[in-house]
């Protein structure tokens, strides 16, 4: 069964390609390498013994998307990771984000609507909840006004898919709302490769740990949390990748209850910034150079998932702890700086 993975050379996409190939799927990747590198294909091959098909293609070019689907009529499922994801950049260049995250989604959905049957998985985010009123966050929690154009593209993306599914019975879709993906493959062959200053906490921690950055700034220790720092739900990237395979199989096997469904993907456990630092110090045996600075505008206090729906309905559950995931992130950081 052939599956298209857009953004399959990226962080979450590459780990998902591995899990798909391990399950016997034929994968074709589309990526424009705007935030990744073709060497990732070698990593995937080293782990799975198979190099996936790959087309270097910019999904913003509509006619190329049409041409791709013309040439690959046997694609039965699409997992759509390709997007721009830097929150700060999205505030400065909103149109770039709307074009890349919304335009590409529309082009792909148009192609899928022409098929007799299609399955689609969308990368959404817990950012849609903003600062939720209740913890842990269930899928029923209200979607809050987006804090950034990036966050808005995830909300709008979900609405576009939902509206399209309502009038397209042949299209089945699942939006997965990721919490905070982190870590790297246990093999050390693939991992997160942030270009420039990392946007996420864990690569910032490991880059500071290895000496690439002088110091980690912890934004605020006066939040209403046990140690005063912000709380997030760190989900190991391999667990997250497996959630995509399970979600796709649900659609391909016709097990879905509606033709558009939404699931949280997290561990269900919140960890503070200081706990993440302690976990790094434990696995690396190094002291991390960090300082407490003022709060950062736009940061929410706490976000962790209620994973009951994913556990019961998808039959999926996160298996790895923060410490295990941090250990793999650290092994990866050391390997790429060798
Ligand atoms: N990493 C996170 O913290 C996080 C959290 C929630 C949601 N997400 C979403 O998950 C998805 C994957 O995230 P990631 O962390 O793996 O990001 P990533 O940047 O590592 O991967 C995205 C990939 O898409 C490719 N791409 C971007 N625009 C493209 C285009 N126009 N045509 C073809 N390829 C294109 C990039 O080159 C990259 O390889 C994104 O949609 C992101 O918004 C990520």
Automatic annotation (TrEMBL):
This protein's pathway: Carbohydrate metabolism; galactose metabolism
CC terms in the record's Gene Ontology section: cytosol
Entry EC no(s): 5.1.3.2
Gene Ontology MF term list: UDP-glucose 4-epimerase activity
Catalytic reaction(s) noted: UDP-alpha-D-glucose = UDP-alpha-D-galactose
GO BP annotations listed: galactose metabolic process
InterPro entries the UniProt entry points to: NAD(P)-bd_dom, NAD(P)-bd_dom_sf, UDP_G4E
Domain NAD(P)-binding: 4-326
Cofactor or coenzyme needed: NAD(+)
Annotated keywords: Carbohydrate metabolism, Isomerase, NAD
Calcium in keyword set: no
UniProt family annotation: Belongs to the NAD(P)-dependent epimerase/dehydratase family.
PANTHER family in alphabetical order: UDP-GLUCOSE 4-EPIMERASE
Quaternary organization: Homodimer.
NCBIfam families, per database record: galE (TIGR01179)
Listed name of the protein: UDP-glucose 4-epimerase
Lineage, broadest ranks: Bacteria, Pseudomonadati, Bacteroidota, Flavobacteriia, Flavobacteriales
């Amino acid at each position: 069964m052939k599956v298209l993975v857009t953004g399959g050379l990226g962080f979450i996409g590459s780990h998902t390609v591995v899990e798909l190939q391990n399950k016997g799927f034929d994968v074709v990747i589309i990526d424009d390498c705007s935030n990744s590198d073709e060497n990732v294909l070698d990593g995937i091959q080293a782990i799975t013994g198979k190099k996936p098909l790959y087309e270097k293609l910019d999904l913003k070019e509509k006619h190329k998307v049409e041409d791709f689907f013309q040439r690959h009529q046997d694609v039965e499922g699409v997992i759509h990771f390709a997007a721009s994801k830097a929150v700060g950049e999205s505030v400065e260049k909103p149109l770039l984000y709307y074009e890349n995250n919304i335009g590409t989604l529309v082009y792909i959905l148009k192609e899928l609507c022409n098929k007799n049957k299609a399955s689609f998985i969308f990368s959404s985010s817990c950012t849609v909840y903003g600062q939720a009123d209740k913890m842990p966050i269930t899928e029923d929690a209200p979607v809050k006004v987006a804090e950034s154009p990036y966050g808005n593209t995830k909300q709008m993306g979900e609405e576009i898919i939902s509206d399209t599914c309502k009038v397209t019975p042949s299209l089945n879709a699942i939006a997965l709302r990721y919490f905070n993906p982190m870590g790297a493959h246990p093999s050390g062959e693939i991992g997160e490769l942030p270009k420039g200053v990392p946007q996420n906490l864990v690569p910032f921690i490991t880059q500071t740990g290895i000496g690439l950055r002088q110091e980690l700034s912890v934004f605020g220790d006066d939040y209403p949390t046990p140690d005063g720092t912000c709380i997030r739900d760190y989900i190991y990237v391999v667990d997250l990748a497996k959630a995509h395979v399970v979600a796709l199989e649900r659609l391909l096997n016709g097990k879905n209850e509606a033709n558009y469904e939404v699931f949280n993907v997290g561990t269900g456990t919140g960890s503070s910034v200081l706990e993440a630092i302690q976990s790094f110090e434990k696995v690396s045996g190094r002291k991390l150079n960090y300082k407490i600075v003022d709060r950062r505008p736009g940061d929410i206090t706490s976000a962790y998932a209620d994973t009951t729906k994913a556990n019961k309905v998808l039959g999926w559950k996160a298996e790895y702890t923060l410490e295990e995931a941090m250990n793999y992130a650290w092994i990866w950081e050391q390997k790429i700086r060798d």
